[in-house]
Amino acid sequence: YLFNIEMGLIINDSVAVHLTGKFLHEGQEVSLIVGTGINTCFEIPFWQLPENKRPNYTEYSATLKAIINAEAGFLGSGMINITPFDSPSDLDCYMPLEFVTAGKWLPLALQKILRHYNYFQPELTSIDGQLLVAIVEGNVKLNVDQACMKFVCEVCKMLLERGAFYLTVTLLAI
């Protein structure tokens, strides 16, 4: 197959989500992506940007806003209670908000907790963020005994509630 590709615009995923949300929901000013990491976009009046970040326009409309794209995973240093179950020991970067909220890290924390309390079983090695939520919602049954299933469900609820708390605080801070 022969074809030509012409490069148009490249846009960051959190900016794309923000602009789509803005189009679908008038008045939206903050967007949040919770996936393998935590990304957010928010708007501020253009005049509030530091001078060295503003383009060289001679006039600014009072309604002109700038979209700020931020990697939010680094937020919370010294404020988020990171446990030994959360923090991956092999990482050079420190992403406290990401470790307690992102779909990549919550299942890994769950596995560490299950190993620590001797509830880890081979059926629990492939839990991802979606399955973690399905467990809490009761939409999945794992091939484990009832006591283990109850423990897994309670730990999943705890992890999700804690993550939701920190995400809520982050959005309020923005």
Task: Supply the key terms.
single chain; 174 residues; alpha+beta; three-stranded antiparallel sheet; 3 strands; 11% strand; elongated
| Largest sheet report | 3 strands, antiparallel
The residue-averaged pLDDT reads 84
What is the rounded distance between the termini? 48 Å
The spatial strand order of the largest sheet comes to 1-2-3
The proportion of strand residues reads 5-15%
Poorly predicted regions are: none
Number of strands: 3
- Helix/strand-derived category reads alpha+beta
Order of helices and strands: HEEEHHHH
Gross morphology: elongated
Rg, nearest Å: 21 Å
Specify the number of helices: 5
Helix content: 25-40%
Describe the structure.
The chain has a 3-stranded antiparallel sheet. The mean pLDDT is 84. Strand 1 and strand 2 form a beta hairpin. It is built from 5 helices and 3 strands; from the N terminus they run H-E-E-E-H-H-H-H. The chain has helices at 13-24, 96-101, 105-116, 129-137, 146-173, and strands spanning 30-34, 38-45, 65-71. It has 174 residues and is of the alpha+beta class.
Give a nutshell description of this structure:
The protein has 174 residues and is α+β, with helices and mostly antiparallel strands. Helix content is 39%, strand content 11%. A hairpin with a 3-residue loop joins strand 1 and strand 2 (38-45).
Task: Give the SSE map.
Blueprint: H1 13-24, E1 30-34, E2 38-45, E3 65-71, H2 96-101, H3 105-116, H4 129-137, H5 146-173
Antiparallel strand pairs: 1-2, 2-3
